[in-house]
Specification:
Chain A: Pfam families: PhnI. Chain A: One of its GO terms (biological process) is organic phosphonate metabolic process. Chain A: This is Alpha-D-ribose 1-methylphosphonate 5-triphosphate synthase subunit PhnI. Chain A: It comes from Xaviernesmea oryzae. The structure holds two protein chains of two kinds. Chain A is α+β, with helices and mostly antiparallel strands. Chain A folds into two domains: 74 residues, no CATH class; 206 residues, no CATH class. Chain A is built from twelve helices and six strands. In chain A, strands 2, 3, 4, 5 and 6 form a five-stranded antiparallel β-sheet that branches. In chain A, strand 4 and strand 5 form a beta hairpin. Chain A is globular. In chain B, helix 4 crosses helix 5. Chain B is α+β, with helices and mostly antiparallel strands. In chain B, 46% of the residues lie in helices and 25% in strands. Chain B has a three-stranded antiparallel β-sheet. Chain B contains five helices and three strands; from the N terminus they run H-H-H-E-E-E-H-H. The N and C termini of chain B lie far apart (80 Å). The chains are: A alpha+beta, B alpha+beta. Chains A and B meet through strand 1, strand 2, strand 3, helix 7 and strand 4 of A and helix 2, strand 1, strand 2, strand 3 and helix 5 of B. Strand 1 of chain A pairs parallel with strand 2 of chain B, so a sheet runs across the interface.
Amino acid sequence: MYVAVKGGEAAITNAHRLLADRRRGERSLPSVTIEQIVEQLGLAVDRVMAEASLYDRSLAALSVRQARGDLIEAIFLLRAYRTTLPRFGTSVPLDTTAMKIERRISATYKDLPGGQLLGPTFDYTHRLLDPSLLADGQVEEPMRKEASDEGVMRVSDILAHEGLIEPDGEFAEDHEAGDLTREPMEFPMSRDLRLQALARGDEGFLLALGYSTQRGYGRTHPFVGEIRIGEVEVELEVAELGFAVSLGRIRVTECQMVNQFKGSSKAPPQFTRGYGLVFGQSERKAMSMSLVDRALRAEELGEDITAPAQDEEFVISHSDNVQATGFVEHLKLPHYVDFQAELALVRRMRADIEAARNGGKDMQEAAE
Amino acid sequence: MDLAEQIGPNTDTTGRRRAAGLLARATTGELQTAWDRLPAKPDVKPVRGPETGLVMVRGRIGGGGAPFNLGEATVTRATVLLASGTAGHAHALGTDKEKVRLAAVFDALWQESETRGFVETALLGVIEARIAAEDRQKAEETAATRVDFFTMVRGED
């Protein structure tokens, strides 16, 4: 028998009206605009785009505003929106060597072509709260210096000249890049699919896993070969035109992690690599992604699988925060009937145990 | 097959690619100003869109290896037809339909010899100059954060 329980409708409507009120907050204060969120909370916008797996700064800012700053809720909103749109096609792969660099650092080479460009970084700040930001004070214009025309060389190419590092990951000619949004997940997974999952994976989850590898759970001896942040051109082959056109630029963060490798029966001792590429400016995420990418290559490189970060099914199945929050948060929805069934079961088990205990007592008394 | 796909490939690839790339980067304001300044407004028939959809953006493993799907981006596209029979296409990141509709009109006008000069000077030149100035400013601001290492010599040997 199924009994539908009604009565929540008015409560739900009023709850949503209350939510809208609390979202707006104190009416005497100006409402925050989408442009203000894009300009002044840009890294929150970047995180939402990366984990929603949809690049659109205005829509991501809208979702941040609608979610009252709850970023996982905002990611959920943007993810849901993307399902309403048709797909026009697939871009030409991004060329990150042609990036308009805004930040580029290497922890492996001090002097390298293009130099160490710090860009707008939190690094080397003292992490002291700045009381001047309590007021809306004047902010100085950035310093400017003549830019050099010197190319910003990829660090992996420097090591590649000596043959001391593995090449960029390749597949057989006929391998078509897999797409998680089109096919159900299956394990084991190829590295391209893993990278797609990691690129949209939860920053906190990947950060914790990356950290675990540093603490010895699947150690990979990493060095930041290079981190670069900047804008790259997105190009699309347009059938009507018969060639690829630029759609504009997007900002991405790329991390090349360089890892020690003792060598195996198949490969000589050399450096191996983990790769991270993320929408927006997010080097924490790109670094975590590259640590986890490398850890997940354990089997391919003939390493022992001993740690959570090396367990592909565990990592990839739990990296998506929209899926995770859906399943965790569903627990708060009505489970009245399930719980009644469990309650009856516990009562019966309890009664059985008590009956058995009383029965035992009766026997004991009889013996005495 | 819809009409947009029947309008076949064009020959002047390099020039058209450059024009399309610049039109994708145009602001609505730049397009509107150029439209307002256009001496004779053409009759424009919408063929497809403007409509918004997604493009799956790909990266490469290790930066230069096999492609993988990084995530999607919103893209708006439009195709228009001038009374002369010239078709204009435009594609740009984002969801701004009016911008992309105007971009498609200017893509068509760029292909016509009478209006190409106008499109070049009143629009493409303006966009190109703005992008160059923005890129230069960013590059210079970044260059000011370049680390100049120097060595402190300590002791006698």
